Amino acid sequence: MLELSNIGKHYEVSGNRVAALFGIDLKLAKGSFTTVVGRSGCGKTTLLRILAGLISPDTGEILIHGPAPRIGVVFQEARLMPWLDVSRNIAFGLHRHLDRKSIERKVSALLEVTGLGAFANAMPTQLSGGMAQRVALARALVMQPDLLLMDEPFAALDAFTRRSMQNELVGLWQQKQPTIVFVTHDVEEAVLLGETVIELSAGTIVGRKDIDIPYPRDPTGMDEAGCRRAILDRLLNPA
Fold it and tell me: Model pTM greater than 0.85?
């Protein structure tokens, strides 16, 4: 579906040219779930912004195989419009494309899938952090993206809500099959969610690990623990 070849990106910081990414090669198969894990400042968000088309790389090329994908983005903060209720936040991007009845049908389906049916008319200030992130996820999914990009969307949630949202995301992915790239600094989260984990350190890929464990995954499982150890070893001791 999408391929990055030798991608590099630099920023000017206090007069110095700093490499945010270099030598990035990455292939995203249609319907795959890829997690990108690494320390803060290792280039994860820059990579996601390049994939989203928000910034351009300085070097390398992006190859699209087939039609250009529709892209949805979910950020760490829900970024809901505070003057719109839940239903209208979800429907925000649809009004240029669909009639009212079609919009209502799509929004109703997403409200059901994300467990927000009882909160359709609630305002953002009435929502918990987890509920607000469900709205943000529904707002991205309602556009039927081929590529869903997620930038540490559960980082600010408590452990219980985060685990619930992780399970919901896997269920939605299995049901709708978008291609997902999920950025996180949490190795456990990367292993629980991704089919493939990309390990990023100091702007370059230092490892890739396919997670051959069936869903739903257990954070206390022996196989999961082994994957976490292998990934942490590479991130702590990159070649």
Answer: yes
